[in-house]
Each structure stands twice: as C-alpha cells, then as structure tokens.
C-alpha cells in the first residue's frame, strides 16, 4: 500500500487509517490517470495527420463505439463507492465518535492571535481544579493515552493542526469544539495554525511533547500547582 | 505591454483599418463607449490581461519570499508579514475574479456568442456597455484598496470572519471594506453580462439553428452564466452583511453579538463551488471547438457532453461544504457532502472521456491552439484526479489547507484561466485582429509555459503531502517544515515560476507584434464550420453581417470529414 509515511511519520492511532484512505485513493486515481493519459497519448500518436488519410465520421452515439466510453464509466461509479466507503468510515472514527475508555486526559486549548494556550489537568487528573497546569505554545501529552481536546478561540478562526497526528480542526470563536487523539509516537512535534488568522499567522506554531508515562508523570509533578507554570 | 486598467481604449488602434458597417462611429464611440459586442469583449480582455500583470507580479513577490525568506525582492523590496498576506489574498482574488471571469466569460462570451449564433449584436448592447463600466470601476476600487492606510486586505481570498469583519483583528480598516466592495461590484457587472448572454443565445440565433446546432462554447458560456446567476445572490447578500459588520458594527458574523462566523463560509462556498464550474465550462468549450477543428472530427457525443455539463452544473450546488469539512460544521454533514463531491467525478470523467474519444479516428494537426487544447486536457486530468483526495472527508482531515489543496486547484485553475485562455486566444486571434499569430513563437510559448507550470506545482504536491500549510510567510518558524529538502522544493517552484513568467514575454511580443505586423488572415484560416468564420470580411464592423446577408443555418457545427464530400468541413450556413 502506498502511504505518505515516508514524508511524515505516523504519530497517532488513526494516522495509519487516514494514510490508508490516501493510499486507496492514490491507487484508484493513479490507475485511472494512467489509463486515461495512456489512451490520450496513444490516440495523439496514432491519429496524427497523414497524407491522403481523411478523418472518420462518428457522431459518438453509435453503440459499438460509445461502449468504450460507457463501460469504463460504470467502473468509475464502482470506484466512487469504494472511495466513499473508506473516506466515511475513517471520518466516522476520527470526527464523529469519541472513544470511551477509562484512561483519558482532557486538555483545554485556547487559540488567540497568535498563540496557543493549554490548560492541562494537574496531579489530580481533573480539569478545572487548583492544580491545573497552564502553558503557552507547549502541549504535553502522554503517549498511548487518549487526549480529549476542547478548542476555544478568543478572537478569529484558527485551526488546530498536528501533521504527525493527521488531525486538523478549525477553532471557532463562540464555540467549544471537542476532538480526540491518541498519540503513539514519542517526541517533539509541530502544532501549526492552519487557518489564516492575521498578521502573525505565519508564526502561530506550538510544540507538542509526547512523553512516556514516566516522563509525563514527572512533568505533572514538577509543574502541578496553583500557580501558572510559565 | 497591454493597456492599464484605467485606460480602456488604449488597445484599440489596431482596428482602424477594418471594415465598418453602414455607420461610421467616432473614435470615442467606438473604443471608449462601444455598444458593439466585439469591442466590449476586447475591453474586457485587455482589462483582464492588465489585471493578470498585477496578479502575476504579486505571485512573483511572495514566491521569492518563500524561496529566499527575508531577501529584498527585486522590483518589490522586503516582504513584511502584513504585505505577504495582502499579496496572497489579492493574487487569488485577482486571478479568479479579475482575470478568469472577465477573460473567459465576459471577453469571449461577448466576442463569440453573436458571431457564432449568427446575430448582429447582443440583445441588450447598452446593458453590455454598462456591465463593462461597472467592471472597470470594480478594478479601480480593488487597486485603490492596496494604497489606503493600513494596506490591502490580507485575510485570504475566502475572507473568513471575524478576521475580515473586524479591523481590530485584520489591521486593514479600509482595505478590507474596499476589497468587499470591489468584489460585489464585479458580481453586479457579471450579472448584467450573464443576463445578456443567456437572452441573446435564446432569442437571436440564426434561422434554422436548433438547440443542438449551437456550438458547444455558446452552450458552455450560457450554462456558466446560469450557474453564476443562481449562485451569486447569497454571496452578494453575504458581502453586504460583511460591509455592515465592518463599517456599522453590526454583528452578523460576530459571535460576541450573537452572530455566526460559519454562516459566511456557507454563503461564500455556496457561490464558491459553482464558481469553479462557471470558469471551467468556457475553457472546456474552447477545447471542444479546437479539438474538433484540428482533428477534423465531429464532437464525440455532442448531446452527452451537453447533458454531463448540465449534470455537473446541478450537482455543483450540492457540494459546497466539502470546503468546510473541518471548519466546525456538524461532522455528520461531511458524509453527505463526501458522497455528492465524489459523485461529481461521474459527469466530469464522462466529459473528459468524450473529449479524448473525439480524437479517435481523427487527422490531428498540431497547431498552437491544438497544443493548448491538448495541454488543457492533460493538466486538467491531474487537477481532476487530485480533487478526489480532498473531496473524501477522511483524507481531507489531513490535506485540508495544505499545499496539496493549493497544487490541486492550481492544476484546475491554471488550465482554465491560462491554458484555456491561450487556447481561445490563439484560435480566434485571426477573427479578432484580422492577422495570424506566429506559429513558431506560439509553440515556444506553449512548451515553455506547459513544462514550467508542471515544475511549479509538482513540488507543491509533495510539500503539501509532507504537511506544509498555506499562507505562511516564512517556514523557518516551523522546525518540521524548515528542512533543507523542503526548502529546495520551494526554490524549485519559485525558479520554475520565474521561467514561466519569462516565457510570457514571448507571448506578449507575439501577440502585439502580430496584431499589427502579422500576415493578413484568410477568411477561414482553420477551415472551421462555425458561423463566426463566414462574415464577409475577417473583422466585420458593427452588425457582423450586412443586413441582407445574415446567415441561415442548415446543420450542426461540427460536420467535419463527412463521407462523400470532397471538402473535409461543411460550414453551417451552406445550403444542402
């Protein structure tokens, strides 16, 4: 299967699923592109002007000719069904449902021109208590644990996008939009704002730290408390 | 260089020697305030070309900034983030609304429709003139918006509020309002033009011309005009609301005042997606005319092409939210819009297959217009198939707002706006100016443009797949995007752009030199069967045909290589 993971690593549980949709579509449209472009090139060569040869006269409604257009066309309808099936099933899992398991962490994400603020639960694991950890442009999550994010904006549209996780969700002022991700790859990754948000759109990035359970526990222990960390 | 936007009559000197009708208009009547559809078409074309120079200069400035961040761009200077945003915003706006629309629909629609259906003019010539005048005002308003305090609007061509509706956020208090006003005026201009096209094609056809004898390009422009008229209303309403939000502090799109910013996105894209087909259809119409003439073949499945076009048009009204999958709409809606979007591949693929099938059994002549038409098919195929990735909701989660999207729509819009225009321009140049273009220069221009275009956008597909987002003025702020490999792809795209721009000099030279010095064109240089080549003089005066010689139509437009006939074409107006 062709995937794009040679360009960018897969860093979440659903990254491989999204890459698979891309791969399936890549195979289907790659096949059609080759067939169409190949036929096109062949006709251009075969039917170039030749001395003394007059062009043929077809209306395009002759059945024995039209079937060469019609049958591939039926196959395209079949391919459409395959594309829709893969696209919708992945969409459903990523965007329409939030997995219900015990081991979850909720993070509040606030976007504004031009920074990301994060409110992590502190040592008690509850969001909205005194020991919450507040950070700017730094998101800390534990690998292989589902993170639920609640996105808010203070001013204009922004978009929460972490390419290695393959997740993207616009942030809309006046609403709280909830999504989820289960990171699998530990390390330091880019969070980019993906929606034009003004002069500073080009610098509105943040760092995502995906930590092992021990590292994450240490980070919480070191920063937990009633005072903002940074 | 072509006429600046403020000088609509600067182009006209080439026509003085051509034949006129019975009445001799003054210079001002003829070139500044014409009612002749051909001159109004020319006004639109030269104004569109002048605006393309702005759009091209803007892309040059910001691509230089992306390839070589922070340099002093020659002829421009340092590109600040605020300017970068204004440059990308206005590049997009100009190329779609002030280049593709005026040239493809207004210029060619005006020039071709009466000639191809055998009419003496549009049915509403003065409305036509008013349409151009409003359009010219919209150009001036847009140009003004770049020079007001705060600078031009920089909130992307989609202008999502609250960024576009509130100057505290956009920092362009006047620029954003003038931008919306310009867009709204431009829509008004094309509404007037569209009414004219549809009415003319319905009422002024030559005697004997039945619906299925109408050349495909006329159908395409009429269907495009209908799509435009039906879709633009909501956006004009949205534009007025946006102006109110900006200047009167109403809160249509402001959540703090109970408004909804996503409402704008629905209004914008309800227009924005049909708009793609509004400009696509005329370009495919040019291709239909050109491939039939130069393969000496009847169009393969005329009626099927027509029905797929209408099908595409209808379907295009039900796909708009595929631009908004991740924008906070109800996620369940994405499933519906994925289905409708992927289904649009059915009529469009059928249309492309039929175009390619037209070549079967042909006798193909590789003239410059034919190369452009074939180049359109080859590039638009790539643009079409890459759209499936974006219409499929699951894949769009990743690709949305990356350079993959950008490369995809440039693979549709560049073939439409430039390859399509060059198809039409090189084909109808003899009709417009009575002289022939130079074929060698035309082929150099084609290959230089075609190859460098692909070298610009292929690297951008890779960058997009690697996660590069749009509208970021300097990728050094994102470590994953600042790698030397990705930077070298950006440099490749920019260098290819410079090559592409330099090949346009070949075109401009050929265009203006041939307009005055090219060989005199014969009446029907391509041996085409359609009516525009049957006028008594190559460049007819107002009225197109003398009143006693108006054509009568006896057959369809594409009767090439009819068995049993010695000539391999059969003009529509020749009695049996």
Walkthrough of the structure:
Chain A has 230 residues and is an alpha+beta fold. Chain A folds into two domains: 15-96, no CATH class; 104-223, Cupredoxins -  blue copper proteins (Immunoglobulin-like). Chain A is built from three helices and ten strands. Chain A has helices at 15-46, 63-96, 213-223, and strands at 104-112, 115-120, 133-136, 138-142, 146-153, 158-162, 167-171, 177-181, 187-193, 205-211. In chain A, the strands form two sheets. Chain A has a five-stranded mixed beta sheet with strand order 3-2-1-5-8, with no helix packed on it. A five-stranded mixed beta sheet of chain A has the order 4-10-9-6-7. In chain A, α1 (15-46) packs antiparallel against α2. Chain A starts with 14 loop residues before the first helix and ends in a 7-residue tail after the last helix. In chain A, 41% of the residues are buried. Chain B is mainly alpha-helical. Chain B has a single domain, classed as Cytochrome C Oxidase, Chain A (Up-down Bundle), CATH 1.20.210. Chain B is built from 16 helices and two strands. Classes of the chains: A alpha+beta (230), B mainly alpha (576). At the A-B interface, α1, α2, β7 and β9 of A face α3, α8, α9, α10 and α11 of B.
Counting DSSP E segments of at least 2 residues, the number of strands of chain B comes to: 2
Query: How would you name the CATH homologous superfamily of chain B?
Result: Cytochrome c oxidase-like, subunit I domain
Radius of gyration of chain A: 25 Å
Note the overall shape of chain B.
Answer: globular
Question: For this entry, what is the oligomeric state of its chains?
Answer: heterodimer
> Could you say which structural class the secondary elements and strand pairing of chain A correspond to?
alpha+beta
- What is the strand tally of chain A? 10
Tell me the distance between the termini of chain A. 44 Å
Largest sheet: number of strands, sense, barrel closure of chain A: 5 strands, mixed
Helix count of chain B equals 16
> Which strand order do you get reading across the main beta sheet of chain A?
3-2-1-5-8
Can you tell me the CATH topology of the largest domain in chain A? Answer: Immunoglobulin-like
Q: What is the gyration radius of chain B calculated from CA atoms?
A: 23 Å
**Poorly predicted tracts of residues of chain B:** 1-21
| Shape field of chain A | elongated
Helix content of chain B: 55-70%
Order of helices and strands of chain A: HHEEEEEEEEEEH
Q: What is the average of the pLDDT values of chain B? A: 92
Relative strand content of chain B: under 5%
In this structure, how is the largest beta sheet of chain B organized? 2 strands, antiparallel
